[in-house]
Amino acid sequence: MKRVFVSLGLSLAVITALLFIVWRENNSISGSEGESETSYVDTGFVATKPDSYDSADTPILIGRDTEAGTLTFLNLDVGKKYTLSYDGATKLYNKFGESISLSQIDIGDIVDVTFLKSKKRLTTMSVSSAAWHYDNVEKYEFNTVKMEVSIGDEIYKLFDNTQYLSQGRSIEEMELNAADILSFQGIDNTVLSVVVEKGHGYLRLANAESFVGGWIEIGQTQVQRITEDMLLTVPEGSYQVNISYKGSGGVKSVVINRDEETTLDIGDLKVEEPRTGTVLFSLEPSDAELYVDGTKVDASQPIVLEYGIHQLIARADGYQSLTQYLRVGEESAGISIVLDEENDADDESESSTEAAEDTETETVDTTTDYYKVYIDAPEDVEVYLDGSYVGISPCSLEKTSGSHVITLRKSGYTTRSYTVQIDEEDKDISYSFADLEVSSSDTVASILSEALDSLLSD
User: Around Cβ 37, how many Cβ atoms within 10 Å?
Assistant: First the structure.
């Protein structure tokens, strides 16, 4: 009987221990859950993910600093600039949603961006699918009065925040030259950014004293009379330059770089005794007036002209005026000139053509001694009008209506040119332009000079 009781007691003890263990585990789990529910506090903090953002915009990309890892944008609504950082987690897309690299997005592009405003961190950037894009445009015309630009046969609006860019820097609309090749971007009927794809530089002639009054031909399109100390605005590229004066001259090669001044030495070109040729003109209508180099001539008689380039203008009532250039290079030649009849649609264009011709030939002087164009700023820089030297600013020049190129130059600074539209109003006008920037080559030279002086002094 004693063994039975002992066995029964042990069994009860084991069962009690097992029940206790089960009870403790249940209470432990229950207690943990209870503590978790009662001790949890919602802080509102959410860990930032690579695709997290709190802001979105459709701006223009206007700056890129790869060393700092930042991009600068212009908000189109308020015209405000802002800079965001980017890294390997930033996602970049083209307008079709395909992944691309940063190098495939250009300064001046209209983009859609998302970003964390508090951290100034760019999350995604894609070329905007809402934007249109015209590349390498040569046929365009700006109308700053109406705030419009014609691209081919279409007319688009400009607005106050339209961006003009050249080689990654912002420029003024006036810094564009009519010969520049541009790209345009916009949304709907408004141009938002204009980028210079192929710009212009400057050409100066050295040792040109013997050729003053002659002609310079640059490529196939630019022809101009040579003046003292002239500085020509020329589209960037490689050219054959033809210099001629009374049968003398020659051809030289030159390369024009954007925003840089190139000097072409023509002192080695031969100056020979003038040679002449006889030209017989045939005009249609026969009563048309003919001007050679700005002087009216009797076209019914043979005209003796010196070898070289001469400007011809033919005019007749009821016909469109014609301006062209003639190269005399042989003893005799016959030239036929046929004028086209006017029509109502061409009245306006012919009027502007005649105004331009009058300015070029100087046969009709549209200036006065009273009305002037004043160049007030920047001071102490060389001023050129359409390539001809005017003086040191502040200075003035006679007012002639039309489109003109004003070029500002100073040694050690980057040359700048501005295309201006001068009105026909009977009053003086004045221009103040931005200060010229120190040229990068001179900045480097100055730094090296200072470093060398420091080493020598030590």
Answer: 8
